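Lay summary. Proteins are chains of building blocks that fold into shapes, and those shapes determine what they do. In this project we predict the shape from the chain. Here is one chain we studied, written as its sequence of building blocks.
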Amino acid sequence: MSYTALAVLAVLAAAAADLFAFRIRLLRRRAFWTAYAIIVGFQLLTNGILTGFEIVRYDPAAILGVRFVFAPVEDLLFGFALVLWTLDWWVWWGRRDSRRAAAGSSRADADA
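And here is the predicted shape, written in a compact code that computers can read:
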């Protein structure tokens, strides 16, 4: 499987998980897109440095060739998927822990 295909698959999997598996729907929230705009700015800076100074090089046959600030578009796709997956897990675990804490406090109240 090519780097491009994996990048697209990663975005599709992360979006499907956000919307259907976790049901958190960060993709529908303005706060997510605001945070992502900040993150992508730093991603472009870092990727631009790494690829612009040829610290990281890509085989031209392995990528589409479309670049933003020296970075292949595939890197932006992977970065998007990584950010979305990470935030989904963060919210999901936070909600789970909140529910456990609430269930524990209600049991303690019932025992008192």
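What the prediction tells us: The helical segments are 3-21, 30-52, 73-111.
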